[in-house]
Specification:
By secondary structure, the chain is mainly alpha-helical. The protein is built from ten helices and four strands. Helix 3 packs across helix 5, helix 7 packs antiparallel against helix 8 and helix 9 crosses helix 10. The longest helix has 43 residues.
């Protein structure tokens, strides 16, 4: 089966979108110290009576790629394209965690449990369960926050586009990301850690959510040039006339569905 270039591009962008979201979910179990990673002195922030340093999940390495994919797919394939991939991604994340829990429940081979003891892992079954068996509250919070963020991103993106037309690509791309990630940052923490068994205080919830959002804010601004690079590559791949026609059709369909 031979695909035309716009269809092939959608498959490629969608593949990166889904793949990065899935990997980010599983990598997110690790919490890293940003200051130590960059060789900087710890930043002791103080917010809402709470203090701490810049600690984030390893998933932040990949979520910016998802944000970029969202904006590019929005630009050329519109509201329907992003919604389709968002629903597909949520379904595949749930599917992946379902099989992760199934794998955890399998009885481990006796020789395998202690095979990495010399490397500081005395119980491979316990380690496997901790890494792949994220709590249900965390999974639910992450999936719900992702879906809300994506749908909000689509809405804001096309609202800005209706006002600015085809100008100010940075405004609709970066602006929609900043708004959607504001909601995403707090929804995931509220579901996973306030409603969940850890029962965070509102002060801790607001402090951690604010720090997380500020990080995403800085990253979103820093990645704005990548949006233009993506547009340049897509126009080179599709041809300027086809790319413009695709974007115009995406804008028209989104306007009809608004």
């Amino acid at each position: 089966m031979t695909l035309d270039r716009p269809t092939r591009l959608f498959v490629i962008l969608g593949g990166f979108f889904v793949c990065n979201a899935l990997i980010a979910e599983f990598l997110g179990v690790k919490i890293f110290a940003l200051e130590d990673t960059l060789g900087l002195a710890p930043l002791d922030w103080n917010l809402f009576g709470q203090s701490g340093s810049l600690n984030f999940t390893a998933g932040v390495l990949l979520w910016p790629v998802v944000f970029i994919m969202t904006d590019i797919i929005n630009e050329y394939y519109g509201r329907r394209g992003v919604r389709f991939l968002s629903y597909l991604t949520v379904g595949l994340i749930v599917y992946a965690f379902g099989f992760a829990y199934l794998a955890i429940g399998l009885s481990p081979a006796g020789w395998w449990v202690g095979i990495q003891a010399s490397k500081g892992v005395p119980d491979m079954q316990a380690a496997y369960g901790v890494i792949f068996g994220q709590g249900m509250w965390i999974i639910a919070g992450s999936v719900i926050a992702f879906l809300i963020g994506q749908l909000l991103d689509v809405f804001v993106f096309h609202r800005i586009r209706r006002v600015t037309g085809e100008r100010y690509v940075w405004a609709r791309a970066t602006g929609s990301t900043l708004v959607s990630q504001l909601i995403d940052s707090f929804v995931v923490l509220y579901i996973a850690f306030v409603l969940g068994p850890q029962k965070w205080s509102m002060e801790l919830f607001l402090a951690v959510g604010t720090v997380n959002y500020l990080y995403k804010f800085v990253v979103a601004i820093a990645l704005t040039p990548v949006i233009y690079l993506g547009r340049y590559l897509i126009h080179g791949y599709l041809g300027d006339e086809t790319a413009r026609a695709l974007a115009a059709r995406a804008a028209g369909r989104s306007a009809e569905g608004a």
